[in-house]
Specification:
Distance between the termini: 46 Å
Strand content: 15-25%
Number of helices: 6
Shape: flat
Strand order of the largest sheet: 1-3-2
Helix content: 25-40%
Number of strands: 6
Order of helices and strands: HHEHHEEEEHEH
């Protein structure tokens, strides 16, 4: 399968990427890309389906479309340890590397741009004889809204 980046001009490049993979930009695929474009955090299939135009498709179509969009590199899948797949649009030039902060109560996800210095990866690789080391890291906590609802001090 080909891998495409996602530019600011959402649909033209996405359409071209799908065409290169002998696929079409169907209504459901277009809607999914637009929904993911509007959100800066990973979304579940059900969250995406809830925002789809009514009667446009069923949940199974959303699942299939997300898997196709992932396989050609337009979206990235995340699993935050709760066995629920979440999907996020990949941005142009984005290697998909960033981190997330997840509320352990309501599952709200916040994108975290801060990352470890690249020297740390190089040091870990050197100390252990590995090459091409990368990392994936998620942070977990209680969001301000859930903390307020439970009278907790942040």
């Amino acid at each position: 399968m080909s891998h495409c980046s996602h530019p600011a001009a959402l649909l033209p490049e996405a359409s071209e990427c799908l065409r290169r993979d002998a696929r079409k930009i169907t209504g459901p695929r277009r809607s999914i890309l637009e929904i993911l474009h509007r959100h800066s955090h990973p979304m579940t299939s059900k969250e995406i389906f809830a925002q789809m135009p009514k009667g446009g498709c069923n949940l199974a179509t959303v699942y299939r479309s997300l898997h196709l969009l992932e396989s050609i590199g337009l979206v990235k899948r995340y699993d935050f340890g709760d066995n629920i797949a979440r999907f996020e649009l990949k941005a142009s030039g984005d290697d998909g590397h960033h981190h997330h902060l997840i509320c352990t109560r309501c599952s709200t996800v916040v994108k975290v741009e801060t990352c470890f210095p690249p020297e740390w990866e190089k040091q870990i690789a050197r100390e252990n004889g590995y090459q091409k080391v990368t990392h994936r890291l998620e942070f977990f906590g209680v969001c301000p809204r859930c903390a307020t609802q439970n009278g907790e001090v942040c």
